[in-house]
Every structure is written in structure tokens, then in C-alpha cells.
């Protein structure tokens, strides 16, 4: 046991010195992750507000102006202008100056005054399908509120009780701000990418420089090599985790109602797992460039597309759901978002934590097996 600790600590000290001396490694370890969380945290938002809206008001009546006001007073739309020239409207929509055009017909006010149904034309920019769907829902909601107001006036004023009313409540993210899901999701992606990339350089760097032969000739065992190389980068990953957590709470003011202990336990297991994935790729690679590119392809692409970062896993097709279960990012995403937003107990998270632990055991088991073939 003493020899194991002494040899492991010696390798760990060597890796720490190389990490501290190399500015590229320090950049990969701390600077780039912090830049990513800030840039994506502020730049990647699913909130749809202040949508540029233009009206083609062919009626010019008090009714049409009241209808326009119902959109202007909504936080979801920003009135660009009122224009009736079709080429101008098309140019605004094509250039992106407007995202939605609402065409009010000439008989709009007359039909409402005579209690007849009136139709308005809605043209939405479909260049961004998800946003277009949200725009359709917002337009329908504002139009529905306007219809309710007309109905109350027609039936005798504000004292009229409508047949069905909705008492809406939103759990876990009452403000419906996307930062409360995006920023915790970025924690998962960053801890998937950078610890894995650093792990992918560990053996590949020794192979490329030729210093791997020092390990070949030394009495160290493969478990000591893996542990010695793991520990410094695990410390780096956990420091990144603490910094990202602090930024999420202090800079972005993300809602957090769960257990910091459970979240930290998940971060430790997840970091061990992702470093193990990178280490396994490093053993299989002959150069650092190959190891980095392979790691990026194997970690970020599946994590971004299948972990539930932007699209819920339940909304994916059967193949996507199957792939999602095979990547550790999906299980850690459950722990992270649950800890931030829901605050559930450990009995809810243990299947996800166990899945991450199994994934890590498989990665290190394969690494030990393949490292034996190269060194033993």
C-alpha cells in the first residue's frame, strides 16, 4: 500500500508540475471553461421577447387601434411600425426587421361593431421554426385576451363571469427564464468536454514525446499510472465545477433549491467518468491531435444533442432516447437540473448517480485492460 501511495503521488506531482508550467494546459483547464459559461450563458437564450412586429392597418378605426394596442402593451412584441405597402412589408420580413406581420382588413371595425366575426391575417417568419411556433402561440394568446375583452363588453361589462377560466401555476421555474435551464446545462457540457480533453492528452502526450518509455522501464503498475494521472485533473475539474457554480449563482442568479452536497457528489463522479473517457481515448491514440479531435467528437456531439440540454429526452424518437441512456451527460443532467430547480432527495438521484458510476467503472476497466497490452 505504501508503494502504491508513493508511486501514485510521485506521478501526480509530475503531472501537476507539467500542468502548472504549460499555459496551454492552464487555458484548457480554467480560462476557456469560464469564457464558455459567460458567453453561452448570456448569448444562448430560449426566451422569446420583444419580437419585431408590424401591422398592416387597412381599417384605421378605433377598433383597429385598440387591437394594435393589445400587442404593443405586451412584453413579447415590439412594434416596428404600421405599413400598408405590400412590397415594403415583404422587404421588412425578408430582411429580418420584422418577424411577424398582422394584416387588419378594411372592414375590421365595422364587423366588430355589428357583432360579426372579423379575421386578421398573420404572416410569420418561419426561418427559425421553434421561434415561429412560439410566435404563433403568443399571437393566439394576445388575440384570445382581446376576444375575452370584447365578449365581456358585449355581455355587459367586467362583472360577467366567463364559462371557463384558468388558474395557471408554474412549478420549478416560475419566472420561465431560460437561464435557469441553460446555465445548469452548460455545467454538464463543460464538465463533459474539458476534463475529457485533458484526460485524452495524458497518455497520448507521453507516446508522442517518447517519455512513455520511462513508464515502460519503471516498476510502476498500470493502476498507479492511471491514479497518478487522474488525481491532478480531477482537482482541476472540481475547481472548474466550483467556479461555474459560483458564476451561475452570483452572475446569472440562477435559481437553486436543492442540495449542494448531492450536486457535488454527482460532479465528482461525473468528472471521474469524463476523465476516464478521455484517458481511454488517450490510450488508443498515437498523437495528441487525434486524441483531442476524437474526444470532442465522442463527448460534445452526443452530449449536446442527446443529453436533454435543449430538447427533453422524452420528446426524442426511440433511437434518440436509446442513445441518451448510453451517455453519462444525460444522467448528470438529471442530477444538475433536479438539484437546481426541484430540490429532490437522494432517493430520486441514486439511479442517475449509479449509472455514472457504472459508466466510469467500464471506462477505467477498459483503460486498465488496454494499458496492460501497451506496458505489461
What is the secondary structure topology, with strand pairs?
Blueprint: H1 2-21, H2 23-43, E1 51-57, H3 62-72, E2 77-82, H4 86-95, E3 100-104, H5 108-113, E4 121-124, H6 129-155, H7 179-209, H8 212-217, H9 222-250, H10 260-284, H11 288-306, H12 318-325, H13 328-342, H14 346-375
Parallel strand pairs: 1-2, 1-3
Antiparallel strand pairs: 3-4
Helix pairs in contact: 1-9, 2-7, 2-9, 7-9, 7-10, 7-11, 7-13, 9-10, 10-11, 10-13, 10-14, 13-14
Domain count: 2
Secondary-structure element string: HHEHEHEHEHHHHHHHHH
Could you give the order of strands across the largest sheet? 2-1-3-4
Which regions contain 5 or more consecutive residues with pLDDT less than 50?
none
Measured as a percent range, the helix fraction is: 55-70%
User: Structural class of the helix and strand makeup?
Assistant: mainly alpha
Q: How would the global form be characterised? A: elongated
- Please report the total strand number as a whole number: 4
Q: Work out the helix count.
A: 14
Mean pLDDT: 85
Radius of gyration: 28 Å
Distance between the amino and carboxyl termini = 20 Å
**β-strand amount:** 5-15%
Largest beta-sheet details: 4 strands, mixed
Amino acid at each position: 500500500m505504501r508503494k502504491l501511495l508513493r508511486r501514485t503521488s510521485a506521478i501526480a506531482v509530475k503531472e501537476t508540475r507539467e500542468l502548472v508550467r504549460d499555459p496551454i494546459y492552464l487555458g484548457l483547464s480554467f480560462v476557456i471553461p469560464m469564457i464558455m459559461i459567460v458567453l453561452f450563458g448570456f448569448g444562448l437564450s430560449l426566451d422569446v421577447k420583444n419580437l419585431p412586429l408590424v401591422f398592416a392597418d387597412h381599417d384605421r378605426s378605433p377598433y383597429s387601434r385598440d387591437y394594435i394596442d393589445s400587442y404593443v402593451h405586451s412584453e413579447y412584441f415590439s412594434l416596428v411600425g404600421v405599413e400598408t405597402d405590400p412590397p415594403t412589408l415583404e422587404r421588412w420580413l425578408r430582411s429580418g426587421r420584422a418577424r411577424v406581420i398582422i394584416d387588419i382588413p378594411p372592414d375590421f371595425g365595422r364587423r366588430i361593431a355589428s357583432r360579426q366575426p372579423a379575421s386578421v391575417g398573420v404572416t410569420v417568419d418561419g426561418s427559425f421554426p421553434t421561434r415561429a411556433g412560439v410566435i404563433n402561440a403568443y399571437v393566439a394568446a394576445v388575440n384570445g385576451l382581446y376576444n375575452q375583452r370584447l365578449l365581456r363588453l358585449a355581455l355587459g361589462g367586467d362583472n360577467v363571469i366567463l364559462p371557463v377560466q384558468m388558474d395557471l401555476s408554474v412549478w420549478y421555474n416560475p419566472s420561465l427564464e431560460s437561464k435557469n435551464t441553460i446555465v445548469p446545462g452548460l455545467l454538464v457540457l463543460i464538465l463533459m468536454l474539458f476534463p475529457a480533453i485533458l484526460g485524452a492528452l495524458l497518455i497520448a502526450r507521453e507516446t508522442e514525446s517518447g517519455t512513455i518509455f520511462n513508464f515502460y522501464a519503471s516498476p510502476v503498475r498500470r493502476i498507479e499510472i492511471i491514479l497518478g494521472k487522474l488525481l491532478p485533473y480531477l482537482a482541476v475539474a472540481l475547481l472548474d465545477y466550483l467556479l461555474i457554480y459560483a458564476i451561475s449563482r452570483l452572475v446569472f442568479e440562477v435559481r437553486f433549491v436543492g442540495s449542494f452536497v448531492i450536486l457535488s457528489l454527482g460532479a465528482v463522479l461525473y468528472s471521474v467518468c469524463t476523465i476516464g473517457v478521455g484517458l481511454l481515448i488517450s490510450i488508443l491514440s498515437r498523437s495528441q491531435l487525434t486524441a483531442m479531435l476524437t474526444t470532442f467528437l465522442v463527448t460534445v456531439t452526443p452530449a449536446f444533442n442527446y443529453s436533454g440540454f435543449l430538447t427533453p429526452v422524452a420528446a426524442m424518437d426511440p433511437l434518440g432516447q436509446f442513445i441518451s441512456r448510453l451517455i453519462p451527460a444525460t444522467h448528470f443532467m438529471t442530477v444538475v437540473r433536479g438539484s437546481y430547480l426541484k430540490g429532490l432527495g437522494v432517493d430520486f438521484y441514486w439511479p442517475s448517480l449509479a449509472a455514472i458510476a457504472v459508466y466510469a467503472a467500464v471506462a477505467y476497466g477498459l483503460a486498465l485492460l488496454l494499458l496492460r497490452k501497451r506496458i505489461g
